[in-house]
Design a protein that fits this description.
The chain is mainly alpha-helical. Helix content is about 55%, strand content about 0%. It is built from six helices and no strands. Helix 1 (about 15-35) runs antiparallel to helix 2 and helix 3 (about 80-95) crosses helix 4. The chain starts with 16 loop residues before the first helix and ends with a helix.
């Protein structure tokens, strides 16, 4: 039976390898405790399916992020993957302005919550509001500390480096 990096290896930049290895160890422990007396043909396959379910969220998050790199190999992402990438980019933008969105995103990326936690009404409402405010030109009019080189009353540029990288890699508008 394969567990840890033998079953699923990640780009270390995402910091999910140890967590998925621990999840795999928990799956193996439960499987051995509950089903070790019923070992037989095909039982290892049952374990591998359970392991795949336990690591699916981390795998989807990391492979989805890898598609943003121009050097990524493999088939082009499908429509659902492109939409998910745009949605995550929107969550990341909202997270730069709202601490609770940033916290929710961090919880998902650190596998403390499932990716579906980013689809809750609070996050969806925030993204919808940001989209409507951006299209109407209202933007985020909070007054914050001045940055060096900005005039009083001037607004910082609306695009961040994250916006530009994600949009150029995904190939669309956010």
């Amino acid at each position: 039976m394969a567990v840890g990096d033998a079953a699923c290896a990640f780009n270390p930049v995402y910091g999910q390898g140890m967590t998925t290895a621990a999840l795999g160890a928990e799956v193996l422990d439960r499987w051995l405790r509950r089903e070790s007396s019923r070992l037989g043909p095909g039982r290892g396959r049952v374990f591998q399916h359970r392991l795949a379910r336990a690591t699916a969220a981390a795998w989807q998050l990391s492979t989805g992020a890898d598609y943003l790199f121009r050097t990524a190999e493999g088939p082009p992402p499908g429509r659902v993957a492109r939409l998910a990438g745009r949605y995550i980019a929107g969550v990341m933008r909202a997270g730069t302005r709202r601490a609770w969105v940033r916290l929710r995103l961090a919880e998902v990326l650190h596998l403390l919550r499932p990716p579906s936690a980013l689809l809750g009404p609070g996050v969806l409402a925030r993204l919808a509001w940001d989209r409507l405010a951006g299209e109407a030109g209202a933007g985020d009019r909070r007054v914050g500390p001045l940055r060096e080189g900005t005039a009083v009353g001037s607004r910082p540029p609306r695009r961040s480096a994250v916006d530009l990288d994600v949009k150029s890699a995904v190939g669309g508008r956010g």
